[in-house]
Amino acid sequence: MPQSDGTLSDREDESSSMSTDPSIFLQQTLDKMKNIDQLDKEMEEKLMKMIIRDLNRVAELQPSLAANAEFSSLYIQCQLLLTKALKDKQWAIPMPMCSQESVMAMASVNQ
Q: Which residue stretches belong to region Disordered (predicted)?
């Protein structure tokens, strides 16, 4: 068995075997979420969408990882929706100042 001397070809072989293993790809995809809060909001949203797309693809191609990939995708989609909702300034308007919305909300509560 030849010994590895750390040459470029050895590293290429190692990286190509890692990129073809779906479980490693899944972990690498999820690792991208660790430092996402350090990005600006636009890049954060783009990265989350890309990760969701990648996770959905893993779920399609690898049945053994489908549950993990689908759960993670749904979780990140919820984070993305929450981020978008908090970015919407209507959440910051006090209820009494929104007369029409206030009337509708009170009617819903009273039912």
A: 1-24
pLDDT in tens, 59-105: 999 999 999 999 999 999 999 988 888 777 666 666 555 566 666 66
Number of domains in the chain: 1
d(CA 49, CA 106): 36
The residue type of 86 is L
Pairwise CA distance, residues 4 & 38, whole Å: 37
Q: Tokens for 46?
A: 């783009």
> Which amino acid would we find at residue 100?
Q
In a domain, 3, yes or no: no
Domain annotation covers residue 1 = no
Q: In whole angstroms, how far apart are CA 109 and each of 99, 101, 103?
A: 15, 12, 10
DSSP SS3 for 4: coil
How many angstroms separate the CA atoms of 96 and 103, rounded? 9
- How far is Cα 4 from Cα 17, in angstroms, rounded to an integer? 15
